[in-house]
Amino acid sequence: MARLACRIGQLAHDIHAVQALGRVGRMAAGLRNCQWRQRFENADDRYYGGACTSTRCWCQKKEGPQAIGRSRGGWTSKIHVVVDALGSPVRWLLTGGEVADITQAKSLLEGLKADAVLADKGYDADALIDSIQVAGATAVIPPRRNRVVQRSYDRHLYKERNLVERFFNRIKQFRRIATRYEKLARNYLSFLSLVCTYIWIT
Prior knowledge:
Blueprint: H1 2-24, H2 27-33, H3 35-41, H4 53-56, E1 69-71, E2 74-83, E3 89-96, H5 105-109, E4 116-118, H6 126-134, E5 138-140, H7 155-158, H8 162-171, H9 175-179, H10 185-201
Parallel strand pairs: 4-5
Antiparallel strand pairs: 1-2, 2-3
C-alpha cells in the first residue's frame, strides 16, 4: 500500500511539471496554434472535419453541343469521314447517332477533287449522284433494292471501299475514341483530329 501511494505521488508531481512547462514555455502556444488540435476540440465523433478535394474546389459546368443522339444501339455519336486512295483521312465530321449519313455527304465532298467517289447504299440518292458527276467524278455507289430502275456501277472498283472500313477499325484501337471519355463535341473532335494526324505521320 505504501509503494502504491509513492507511485501516485510521483505521478502527481509529473503532471504538475507538465502544466508548468505549458505555462512557462512555448508548448502551450504551439498547442493552441496547432491545426489538428483546433479541428478535434469541438468535433463530433460522427463528423470528419477534413474536406475532400471535390468540396473544396469548384469547377465550372461544361456547357455546349455534345453531338449525341439516340440510334438503334442507344445514345451514340457518329463519325463521318472521307479517306483518299491510301486510306488516309481527308475530312471528318461529328454528329449525333440519329443523323443519316447522306445528310453530311455534301459537306464532306465540297471542294474535294477526285476521279471516283465510293460509298455504300446509304448514299444512294439522285441529288448526290448528280452533284458528283457535275464535279467531274464517277459515282461508285450501289443502288438500293427499292429503286424502280436499277442503275449500274463498277463492282470491281467498289471493292476499294474497304479502305474507309479499315480506317474505322484503326481508330477504334484508341480507347479514348472508341469509348468517348469527353462530354463536349469539341473536345472529342479535338482528340479525333489528333488521331487522324497520327495516322498521317505514321
